[in-house]
Design goal:
This protein is mainly β. The chain is built from no helices and eleven strands. The strands form two sheets. Strands 2, 4, 5, 6, 9, 10 and 11 form a seven-stranded mixed sheet that branches. Strands 1-3-8-7 form a four-stranded antiparallel sheet, with no helix packed on it. A hairpin with a 4-residue loop joins β7 and β8. The chain is globular, with a radius of gyration of 14 Å.
Length: 118
């Protein structure tokens, strides 16, 4: 059974850092695009970062230079390192796994809350 479990969210002051983790069960990184999305209050869900089987990453312009996506294949875990956090980064952050060949094999975690406030 596929399972994505996020952790690492919390309350942080502006300028601070957090690292989110997504532990993936029954996911082979060779066949999935892994991504982080976020949804802030009153906003649509937004794609933040992706990493594909080759390790190539893509970061949304809104967070480029501050956020980094990475993975640990041995631990089957994907990370989102968030630095210099701003109040507008406040959102629920979701981990997503999308099969590169079968679009219906698209899985989401339960989300983790990130709040940036002084």
């Amino acid at each position: 059974q596929v399972q994505l479990v996020e952790s690492g969210g919390g309350l942080v002051q502006p300028g601070g850092s957090l690292r989110l983790s997504c532990a993936a069960s029954q996911i082979n990184f060779n066949f999935y695009r892994m991504a982080w999305h976020r949804q802030g209050p009153g906003t649509q869900r937004e794609l933040v970062a992706t990493i594909i089987s080759s390790g190539t990453t893509n970061i949304a312009d809104s967070v480029k230079g501050r956020f980094t996506i990475s993975r640990d294949v041995a631990k089957n875990t994907v990370y989102l390192q968030m630095n210099n956090l701003k109040p507008e980064d406040t959102a629920i952050y979701y981990c997503n796994a999308e099969h590169i060949y079968v679009s219906t094999m698209n899985y989401w975690g339960q989300g983790t809350q990130v709040t940036v406030s002084s």
